Every structure is written in structure tokens, then in C-alpha cells.
Amino acid sequence: MQPNTSLADAIGLIGYATDDMGIGGVLKSRVADFRVDEIATTITLNPKGRFTVAKITLTNWETNRFCNNLAKKLSISRNRIFFAGTKDKRAVTSQIFVIDAPQFKVAEIEIPDVVIEVLGRTHQKIGFGNHRGNRFTIVVRGCAHQDGTAMTEEEALAEVERIKNSMHEKLGTGRFPNWIGPQRFGSGRAVTAEVGRSVVQHKWDEAALTYISKEGEYESPEVATFREHIRKHGITQEGLDLAPEWLGYERRMTEHLLNNPDDHIGAFRKLPNNLQIMTVHALQSVVFNRTLRKRLEQGMSITTPEAGDLVGRLDERGQLSANNCVLVEERTAPRIGRNCQ
To answer: Cys-Cys crosslink for 187: which of 103, 104, 162, 182, Cβ 3.0 to 4.6 Å?
Structure first.
């Protein structure tokens, strides 16, 4: 299933790897249909460590909102909670958090739809992106043929097998185009990459105002009215009054600009650090999606490097060091290609 055309084009998610018809169906029909288990890097536990390490399972929680709630419960700054990545909201997610708070206080926390398993203490923090990856368990409901008639489970699995075989023939064994999906960009409001473009261009006024006011496709009338007011009239007290309470980031950014009209960097910094970084990651993801599509369209390999590609080694944590990347040339392509197998 592909997102609507305007969103798909904005995030570079156009086209398919094969010509197979697919199985249709609906993702995330129920919260429990989508499970994300983080594959964490090793954290060394030490009973004398400053930080509490916990494995936390969230059901239908947006990661940043959970962190704000947890910080409030612990009476600490939001910046004293560390994690490797934001996860899908409409899902059951499990990941490691490192929290600068006493272990017994973390263990006592009770929040609806949250399970906290304290693992111990550590001297280590973790940073954004400091994990090996994620393992997904996904239920697809309502699979159907092109004419709308329902597929049986056997028919759906047979079609999946055909798609796997098609990708095997076209791309190679066990290979598939790992496009980055809409959740990276804001599923109903593809704002993060657009903000990221302004950030890398140091256009902080555009970055802040785009985040506050960019129109979303499925937003409530109250939110739509607020964003439209900002687009038409700029930052005003009336606009702030129109902002629903649950738009916490937009409200804080708007309030900051009311008090500091020229401090757009300060307004942008009202976003959590990980969300600030995510805007640039989202822009990189658009480039990745479009590059991947072009390689497929031109019949290029998606796993064997060709002249002009940048190639680097992954460390034991699965992290790529950009400083050690090399540019593939015609003369070095065969050797580098062998090393990438």
C-alpha cells in the first residue's frame, strides 16, 4: 500500500520494486497489529552507575509525549531521559531508556499502557540512533484482490511468495529496497523533511514557521484553524489562543516568538533534541528514497557499489562512520564490490 500521491511525492516514495499486484490490506487496524522491538546496543550495567536503565513497553504512545509525561512524574528535566529512537505511536513498542533518576523512583512509576522493567544502573548514556535496528511484527488485515474480493490467508501468502520470488530474480537473493516509510516524515503532515531543508539552509524563520503552520491532511478543525491563522497573519496572541492544548510544541514555539519575535532559533529549540535531529534525518531520508527509486528505474544494483557511490564500514554496533567513507571509482569498484558481499 502506498500513501496518497501528494505525500508519496513529497517523501520520494513513488513506484514499486516489482510489477506484482500485491495483497492490499490495512496496516495498524488495531494498535496490537504493529509491534516494534528495538535491537539495542550493549549497555554495561554497574550497580554504582548514575543512570537507571529500563526496558519500557509502550502501547499507543508517541515517544516524545511519553518522555514528557515520565519526566513530569519523576520531577526531572525532559533532557535527563535518553533513548535511541522514536517509535511508531499506533503500535506496541519496546525499547531501552536510560534515565537520570534513582532506580527506585523509576520502578515506582505507573502510567496507563506503559510497562517499565528496570534492568539496573549504568554510567553510560545512549544517543539518538545508538541502536542496531528494529524488529517489526506486523498484522495485515483485509487483504483483497484487485477487484475487491477478499483474499484467503493462503492466497495472500502465495502472493507474498510470488513477490519474494520476483525480487529474488530482479534484485538478488534476500535483497529488497528498504524504503523509508511515511512515519519518518509525519504520516498526516509531511513536515519534518521540509523543516530539515530550512535547517540545513540556516533559514530558521522558515523552519519554525513551517513546523508551526504547515497544513495537515487529516487534522481536526481546531488545529486547521490555528495553522491557517498563523499562515495568514503570522505569530499573534490570537493565534496562540486558537492553538489546542495538545499541540504542546507548536504552542511553546508560538509563545516564544510572541515574547522574542526575532529569535527563531530559540523557537526551533523548543522542540525536543531528538525531534530537532529528526528534521535533518527526514531530509536525508527523502534523498535516500529518491536515489533508491532512480537506481531501480535505471536497473542499477542496490547492493553492489558502482562508480560514484560512497561506501563505508559498519562497526560492531552496526553504525556507519561517515568519516571513513570512500568514493568508489571505476578502477576500485571490483575490489570494493567484493568486500561488500
So the answer is: 182
